[in-house]
Amino acid sequence: MTKKVYLHVGTPKTGTSYLQHVLFNNREKLLTKSIRYPAERFDDHFLAALDLMRLPWGGLETDAIGAWDHLAAQVRRWPGTSIISHEILATASRAQIGHALETLGHGDDAEVHLVLSVRDLVRQIPAEWQENVKHRAALPYGRFLDQIQDPRREGRIATWFWGVQEIPDILDRWGHDLPPEHVHVVTVPPAGGSPDLLWQRFTEAFGLTGVSLALDGERMNPSLGAPETALIRRINRAANEELEPADYRPLVRELLAHQTLSRRTGSPRLGLPPDVHPWATELEDAWIDEVRRRGYDVVGDLDDLRGGPPLTEYADPDHPDEALVAGAAVDALKALLLDNARLRHELGHRQGDLDQAHRELEKAYLRPTYRWRQKLVRRLETGRAGRLAMRAYRRARGRSSRSA
Amino acid sequence: MAGDRAVTAPSSASETDGQARAWGWVGHLRSGGTTPWSAWQDRAPAREQAGRYLPGAQQLELLRRLNQQRVPGPELAGRVLAASAPGRGRPDLGLVGVLPRTRFGPAPVDPSELPPDELVRVATALIAEDVVAAGEPAPPRPTRRFRRRYRLLGDPELARPFREALVADGRPPGGSGATVVVLGTDTEQMLVHAWTARCFGTEGVRPWPEWVAAAARGGALPPRIDLAGTARAWAARVGAGRVHVVLDDPPYGARLAGLRHPATTRPDLSADAIELARRIGPVVGSLVPPERRALLLWHRLRPLLAGFDGATLLVPERHRPWLAERTTDQRRRLGRGDYAVHGDLPDPSAAPAAGRPGERVGVAAPDDERVLALAMQVLLGPPAGALDEPGESV
């Protein structure tokens, strides 16, 4: 049997979190089919990607040291099929890709298959801005659109966007050393299609057809509406300077965005402005032609990369309906209040435990001789002569009387 | 191999010619050449068009500029060409004129037009690897049983060298009955020192202009250089009799803490050296855990950078009113404390006193071109004599 490595390198917002969730939760089942998803914790492949690309990520990079080599070593040791998946791998440089392929055994004993899941730009552009906002960005949507349309692509926003979204370039960088039949392009079906269709395409691309896996009904990384995204952006602008990254992640990204505001599904969705639509669709057409020309294995339909028609009712997040933003803000406040109340209760319990411990300690200190000695020591410590006397006493008495 | 597709099976004659010319330039740079890409015409022979991919414009231009300074050995040249710029930023860029322009991928560039910042990114990857390869310093001697207890606080750049010397000698800070020494100096210098300490720390920090502007917006001085606040807090904890604020005389403060023969303090690092450290720190942090990062930056990178001269950092002119106000406030609070204060902070409203330096000379921000020049010097090796002093000394 040929040893295979399926390397899924992106793109973001194409169901990658859901796929990774299913693979992680079905590791044991996969092993029975000689397929390994080598991960001890859910974000192992993310950490490996950070390590490979030496990417700082709000302090998480310290958990990532050596993670790629550890992951690659597991893949090298496994005689069957291995799967690696993380969407930020899309931005890797050619040198990093060379290192990745080499350490996975490409050119040695492993047949590396590249998998890239892709979605039309009309949906990807607003999704990427929203993802930026959920990672502390405070720039308005309009400026984001200007930056990604600027052909110079100089800023951090533009370089990241194109690094993870420009399908022909990603395929060129990652697929440079691979035969086209080992490069699998999985297209995300158009909005409104069967929710299972993407999963079927993934199973085909990863060679999982016929493998029975437990699918979790919950889709990860839920999206926000236009007023909710506008609210998070305003919060970023107001709090970025004072809120540490380690606090931002659980409070803003998780509690506010994912657990609270994403539930407001009735608000207008974020979309592509009608005036940007022609530029995006022209690019989509060029990408479709290029991918088709290169002869990769397409799982799905390349026409899925052609986005929907321009919106007739566009909700501009830079000029949102303030009543809707206020509604979202009330929901956010409520969530913070409830979380704060929970923490207060927890703090109360902890304080109770601490007070109890103090009382027990005090009881132990209540002996009159202890209190007399304590008073004497305090008095001696206030003067130079007393301090010297105490030092001499402690030295004479030995180790047990010195502070720990 | 499919990887050689672009080289061995080009789609057009111009592509062949561009690629051959680019590989010729790679060979030229590897052998120490300094000709810019725009002036390069020679094609490499087919057998020399080797490699999985052409190195990026950033890597090639960095090697060319290194060659202009001093030709590096083949190992360093190879590392430069194989390096990836760490962190976020522009990807490896193609050379203009190699391939026909397509609608995909970042636009190819003339490498000589790249901003220095892009070359610094590549250099930081290599310097960080060197810093990690240099290894950690020798561990401190075991803690002495009989030792003077102390805490050395205040200006981190003044206090840390003495604290490191004491720790290396088996005298860690803290303990019952410790004498608390708070070191300080001119507020502007302390502010620069506070940022310097962050650049050599493990948390990362914003560029100087942004950091100092945020401090000014916040109003208060950073806690570490709030000498009066530190002294007051410790006086409440251990008694005012054990607290000493020492201004402008770090060796005296070190003696109070129990260091018998404190060395003279080193001059401040240049603005560009601190900025380079700020950029290297996170890359080292991607290679080693935080505690090793802190050790390596202090004991390996810092002595390396101290060997290079350069203009010192100053607070930008627009923040000087805030600085004067903070100094006045600090003077007032120090004067009201019941702990010992040795020396004094200069009064910002008075003319410089005799024996004190007047207006400091330096720059209000690091400069990318100079940072690049420094990074290249560090890569090529420090000037003779720069490493004579051991890293652990004060």
**First-last Cα distance of chain A:** 62 Å
Report the radius of gyration of chain B as a whole number of Å.
26 Å
Which series of helices and strands of chain A comes N to C? EHHEHHEHEHHHHEHHHHEHHH
Q: Numbering strands along the chain, what is their spatial order in the largest sheet of chain B?
A: 1-2-3-5
Number of strands of chain A: 6
CA distance, first residue to last residue of chain B: 56 Å
Strand content of chain A: 5-15%
Question: What is the string of SSEs of chain B from the N terminus onward?
Answer: HHHHHEHEHHHEHHHEHEEH
Helix/sheet category of chain B: mainly alpha
Ranges of chain A where pLDDT stays below 50 over 5 or more residues in a row are none
Give the overall silhouette of chain B. elongated
Largest interface (C-beta under 8 Å) = A-B, 49 and 43 residues
Q: Mean pLDDT of chain A, rounded to whole units? A: 92
Low-pLDDT ranges of chain B: 1-11, 386-394
The percent of residues in helical segments of chain A reads: 40-55%
- Range of strand content of chain B: 5-15%
What is the count of helical runs of chain B? 14
The secondary structure category of chain A is alpha/beta
Largest sheet of chain B: 4 strands, parallel
Order of strands across the main sheet of chain A = 2-3-1-4-5-6
In terms of quaternary structure, the protein is: heterodimer
